[in-house]
Amino acid sequence: MTCRICGAEKAETHFGGISCRACAAFFRRYVNSKKVIIQCTCKQRTEKSYPCRRCRMNRCLAVGMTKTKVQSSREKNTRRVIPSSELATLSLLSCHIVPRFCFKIAHTIDSWPELDQKRKSLYGECFYDLNFLEVSNMARSDTTLLWSLGVMIFPDLGFLTAKDKEAIICNFFPRWIVMESSIDYCTNQEHHRKMMDNSEELEKMIIKFYGSSMKERKPDKEIVGVFKPYWVHFYNEIAEPVFQMKLDRVECIALFLMILFDDAYTNISEEGAKLCRNLRKVVLRELKGYQTDNNLPERRLLDVMSTLMLLEKGEEKMQEEILLCGLNNVNLHDDFKSIVQVKKL
């Protein structure tokens, strides 16, 4: 069977008319295109040239091709760009304005609202009402939710051994706590800065967070003396620099995925580390493409990656803080301690 439009061989029915694949593809592109060719340009072409778009389209219609049988342009061909000036907040991470050419990152952002609701059901609407023990009680359930999102975006994670899965979760979760706390600082920066300026309010929060988690309550002054330096360090050395980065939602999600797929620890098997490296490459490629598409400076990628170093420093201080919790009778759930205190190197 020959194409009734151009005479090529191996034709078949497309959109209601008999044509080759090339003419069918032309018809589909023409129907979905915003460009409209009104005038015929065949007189300006040589005898051996193909007919102009208008005449070729008329032939398509003449052989029975129907526009209504062509599907509209797929959403993946549409680029919706995130304004790079927006700050990274959990509410913004849940937005649906994502760049479709960053498929894995976009899929993560699209899936975040559902995850966010599940985590709110776990922790409650106001995280500030919880003490350290209550937060630690949620650790295992929270890591399960976060890991499930990772597997949905990257199904290959489902083939990891149970040992590798647990190791990756333990490597990821402490830095995610630091990252999410930094995001919260960006979300509520005015509130946090006022609290930093008002030492009394900061100390009240510290006393509630640790004191109400203690088996044997220590004096308030002692609690403040032990733990306040860690809060001040976090605000000044971690959260404020992250805020100054002005990270947008794509960059925040990319960091979330890169924290999850860190292959630099020896508690992961070589097969697990190889998978993490490959997944990280995918995330980095999409992040670089996003930044290039938005004409961001080349140094922007390095600046975003430097956030990972900040998170590592934050994790080190958090490990010190948890050790002090043990020395000061702060009661924490065993699951939380097994996750954040695992030997990684």
UniProtKB/TrEMBL annotation:
Chief location: nucleus
Any single Gene Ontology cellular-component annotation: nucleus
PROSITE patterns in alphabetical order: NUCLEAR_REC_DBD_1, NUCLEAR_REC_DBD_2
Domain of life: Eukaryota
UniProt entry tagged with the keyword Disulfide bond: no
Cellular localization per UniProt: Nucleus
GO terms, molecular function: DNA-binding transcription factor activity; sequence-specific DNA binding; zinc ion binding
Pfam family, one: Hormone_recep
Similarity section: Belongs to the nuclear hormone receptor family.
Protein name: Nuclear receptor domain-containing protein
Annotated keywords: DNA-binding, Metal-binding, Nucleus, Receptor, Transcription, Transcription regulation, Zinc, Zinc-finger
Domain (Nuclear receptor): residue spans on this chain: 1-72
